[in-house]
C-alpha cells in the first residue's frame, strides 16, 4: 500500500528534540512522525539533504508504517555507545548514558580539533571501558589518505576494532585499506554506502571490510537487506540520530539480518535530551529489544516544532512524495 499525501499529513507530527551534546554540528534534532496501519514510523533526513536523497528516507518511512516486515530472527540486539567529539574530561559522563555497552564508537577528525584531541578522547574511552572494551573510531570521511594513515598509526595503540569511513571516496577507502591491512585493523564504510548511487561499489572494489548500514537512508528494511545479501560482507546496523520511533526501524532491520557479528549503533536515543515516548529505546546491559514504539501524546506536544518548522517539513514531505510517485 502506498499512502496518499493526505494520508501522511493526516497523522504527521513534527518534533524538535534537544541533544545532550552537540553532534553532527547540530544541537536540535528535527523529525517527522506518521502513524500507518503497521504502526508509527519516522521520516527524518537531515535538513541539509536535498529532495532526491530525502525521498529515499520517505520510502523507508512508508515501508515501515504501511508495508509488511521481514521475519525477526532475534529479539535482542547488542548495541554500542557513541561518543561525540567532546573533550576527554567529558567522556565518562557520556559513556554513563550507555549502561552495559561493551563497545564505543568515538567521533574523530572534528573540524577545529587536532589528532592530539582525538587521541586524548580515545584514550579516555579505553580507560573507562578497560582492556576488554571494544573501540571503533569514525572520521566521517574527513581525512585524506595520508592523514588517515597517520591517524590510524597514532590511535592503533588503543586497540581499535575498526575504523569507520576514514576517507570520503571509494578509491581512497581502497588505498587506505591497502596501507593499513598489515596492521589488522578493518576499514568500515558508511557514507560510501548510504549516500552512493551504487551502494555495492564499496564491496565490488574491495574498499572495505565492513558495511555500516542504516534503514532510512537506504530506502527501508527490505532494500537494506538486499544490499546485505548482495554485498556479502559483515555489517553493522546504525541509526541516523533518530527518535526511538526511527531506531525501532533500525532494530527491526538488525533483527532480520542472519549474520550479525558486531554490536550495532542503535543506542543513539541516549544522545537525545528528550524523546517522543515514555518508553525510549535506551540500552539495558548493552542491549535493546526489537519492538515497535508508540509516541506519548504529551511528549509530542511538549516537543512540537514551531509552526514555521512544521510548515517547512510539510512542504518537504509534499515534494518528496511527488518524487516517489514519479
SSE topology:
Blueprint (H helix, E strand, L loop, with lengths): L4 H7 L1 E11 L2 E11 L2 E5 L7 H16 L9 E3 L2 E3 L7 H5 L7 E5 L7 H15 L4 E5 L6 H11 L4 E5 L5 H11 L6 E3 L1 H4 L6 H4 L5 E4 L7 H11 L3 E3 L6 H13 L30 E3 L7 H6 L4 H19 L1
Parallel strand pairs: 5-6, 6-7, 7-8, 8-9, 9-10, 10-11
Antiparallel strand pairs: 1-2, 2-3, 4-12
3D structure, described in words:
By secondary structure, the protein is α/β, with parallel strands linked by helices. The chain folds into 2 domains: 5-68 and 297-325, Enolase-like, N-terminal domain (Enolase-like, domain 1, 2-Layer Sandwich), CATH 3.30.390.10; 76-289, Enolase-like C-terminal domain (TIM Barrel, Alpha-Beta Barrel). It has 12 helices and 12 strands. It has helices spanning 5-11, 51-66, 91-95, 115-129, 145-155, 170-180, 191-194, 201-204, 221-231, 244-256, 297-302, 307-325; strands spanning 13-23, 26-36, 39-43, 76-78, 81-83, 103-107, 134-138, 160-164, 187-189, 210-213, 235-237, 287-289. A 7-stranded parallel β-sheet has the order 5-6-7-8-9-10-11. Strands 1-2-3 form a 3-stranded antiparallel β-sheet, sandwiched between helices. The chain has a two-stranded antiparallel ribbon with strand order 4-12. Strand 6, helix 4 (115-129) and strand 7 (134-138) form a beta-alpha-beta unit. Helix 2 packs across helix 12, helix 5 runs parallel beside helix 6 (170-180) and helix 9 (221-231) runs parallel beside helix 10 (244-256). The mean pLDDT is 96.
Amino acid at each position: 500500500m502506498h499512502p496518499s499525501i493526505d494520508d501522511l499529513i493526516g497523522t504527521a507530527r513534527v518534533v524538535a528534540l534537544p541533544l545532550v551534546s552537540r553532534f553532527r554540528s547540530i544541537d536540535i534534532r528535527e523529525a517527522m512522525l506518521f502513524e500507518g496501519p503497521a504502526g508509527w514510523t519516522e521520516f527524518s533526513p537531515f535538513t541539509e539533504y536535498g529532495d532526491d536523497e530525502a525521498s529515499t528516507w520517505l520510502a523507508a518511512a512508508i515501508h515501515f508504517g504501511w508495508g509488511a516486515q521481514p521475519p525477526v530472527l532475534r529479539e535482542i540486539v547488542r548495541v554500542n555507545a557513541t561518543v561525540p567529539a567532546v573533550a576527554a574530561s567529558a567522556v565518562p559522563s557520556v559513556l554513563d548514558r550507555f549502561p552495559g555497552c561493551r563497545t564505543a564508537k568515538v567521533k574523530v577528525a572534528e573540524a577545529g580539533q587536532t589528532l592530539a584531541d582525538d587521541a586524548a578522547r580515545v584514550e579516555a574511552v579505553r580507560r573507562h571501558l578497560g582492556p576488554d572494551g571494544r573501540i571503533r573510531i569514525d572520521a566521517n570521511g574527513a581525512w585524506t589518505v595520508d592523514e588517515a594513515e597517520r591517524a590510524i598509526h597514532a590511535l592503533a595503540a588503543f586497540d581499535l576494532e575498526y575504523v569507520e569511513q576514514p576517507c570520503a571516496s571509494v578509491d581512497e577507502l581502497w588505498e587506505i585499506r591497502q596501507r593499513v591491512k598489515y596492521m589488522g585493523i578493518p576499514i568500515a564504510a558508511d557514507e560510501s554506502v548510504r549516500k552512493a548511487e551504487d551502494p555495492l561499489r564499496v564491496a565490488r572494489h574491495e574498499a572495505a571490510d565492513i558495511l555500516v548500514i542504516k534503514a532510512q537512508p537506504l530506502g527501508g528494511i527490505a532494500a537494506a537487506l538486499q544490499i546485505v545479501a548482495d554485498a556479502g560482507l559483515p555489517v553493522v546496523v546504525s541509526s541516523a540520530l533518530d527518535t526511538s520511533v526511527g531506531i525501532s526501524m533500525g532494530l527491526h532491520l538488525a533483527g532480520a539480518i542472519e549474520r550479525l557479528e558486531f554490536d550495532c549503533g542503535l543506542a543513539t536515543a541516549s544522545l537525545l535530551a528528550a524523546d517522543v515516548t515514555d518508553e525510549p529505546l535506551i540500552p539495558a546491559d548493552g542491549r535493546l529489544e526489537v519492538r515497535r514504539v508508540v509516541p506519548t501524546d504529551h511528549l509530542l506536544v511538549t516537543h512540537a516544532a514551531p509552526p514555521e518548522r512544521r510548515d517547512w517539513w510539510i512542504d518537504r514531505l509534499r515534494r518528496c512524495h511527488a518524487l516517489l510517485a514519479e
